[in-house]
């Protein structure tokens, strides 16, 4: 399943695409690609002004009006409300991209702070946004997609860190590993039982985005998004790029352990803030 492609990839110009976390980073970069191929694009996020600015930029690129909607996927009721809004107002939506995500560094050296509810709440938020939200939204939208007479898609954005974690962002890495597992299972089920639903996984390396407060290292955002979009057009089940492809294809526990130690030792030796995938 990992290296396979769907025989009939998505018809992008006729698609309506919902992108969570679509006002910045990879979400916005992918939105640019969809807009330039004349898809109808809906972006969501928590910050209205940022959504307005992103929609204005996207509207200068394409022929179709980009829609924005304020929504916080951290909240289970807002996820339900987002699904209802889409079904009621934009029932032609046939592509869901679960892109919204956050990361925070976690150190066991300060683990005593987790005795305070507020400190753990911040970490649990990472789990809700990175894992609970894409799982929940996937299950919600499957109910709508299975009734449509066109090809539909669920696209989950995980990370190269799903395969080789960074210790300093252990919870983030763990959520992406779990999302990878969930996406594989979802793809298997839909291929057997709901053939009009395609399931993709985008597996980024470190990319220059504002995730985790912003980073100047990693792959250039536009270059990465163009390459990822090209793979999506080809129907690739799992979409990797450079180092994330190396991470995904490690075949032994020894190789994983070796790369894990090198990544984490290099990180500790060179920078204060961890690279984010």
UniProtKB/TrEMBL annotation:
Membrane-spanning intervals of the chain: none
The protein's name: Uncharacterized protein
Molecular function terms, GO-annotated: oxidoreductase activity
This protein's UniProt keywords: Oxidoreductase
GO cellular component, one term: membrane
Family: Belongs to the short-chain dehydrogenases/reductases (SDR) family.
Known role: Putative oxidoreductase.
Organism field: Adineta ricciae (Rotifer)
Highest classification ranks of the organism: Eukaryota, Metazoa, Spiralia, Gnathifera, Rotifera
UniProt-listed InterPro entries: NAD(P)-bd_dom_sf, Sc_DH/Rdtase_CS, SDR_fam
Domain of life where this protein originates: Eukaryota
Pfam families, A to Z: adh_short
Record-linked SUPFAM superfamilies: NAD(P)-binding Rossmann-fold domains
């Amino acid at each position: 399943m990992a290296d396979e492609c769907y025989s009939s990839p998505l018809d992008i110009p006729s698609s309506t695409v919902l992108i969570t976390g679509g006002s910045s980073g990879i979400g916005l970069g992918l939105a640019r690609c969809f807009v330039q191929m004349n898809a109808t694009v809906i972006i969501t996020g928590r910050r209205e002004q940022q959504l307005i600015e992103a929609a204005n930029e996207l509207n200068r690129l394409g022929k179709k009006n980009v829609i924005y909607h304020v929504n916080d996927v951290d909240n289970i009721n807002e996820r339900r409300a987002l699904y209802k809004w889409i079904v009621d107002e934009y029932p032609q939506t046939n592509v869901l991209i679960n892109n919204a995500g956050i990361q925070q560094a976690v150190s066991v050296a300060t683990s005593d702070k987790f005795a305070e509810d507020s400190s753990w709440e911040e970490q649990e938020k990472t789990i809700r946004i990175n894992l609970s939200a894409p799982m929940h939204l996937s299950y919600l939208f499957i109910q709508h997609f299975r009734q449509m007479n066109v090809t539909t898609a669920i696209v989950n954005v995980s990370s190269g860190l799903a395969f080789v974690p960074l210790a300093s962002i252990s919870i983030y890495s763990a959520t992406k590993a779990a999302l990878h597992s969930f996406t594989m299972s979802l793809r298997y089920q839909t291929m057997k039982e709901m053939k009009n639903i395609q399931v993709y996984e985008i597996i980024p390396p470190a990319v220059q985005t504002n995730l985790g407060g912003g980073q100047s290292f990693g792959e250039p955002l536009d270059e990465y998004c163009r390459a990822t979009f090209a793979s999506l057009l080809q129907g690739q089940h799992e979409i990797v790029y450079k180092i994330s492809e190396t991470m995904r294809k490690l075949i032994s526990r020894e190789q994983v352990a070796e790369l894990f130690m090198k990544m984490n030792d290099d990180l500790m030796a060179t920078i204060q803030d961890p690279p984010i995938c």
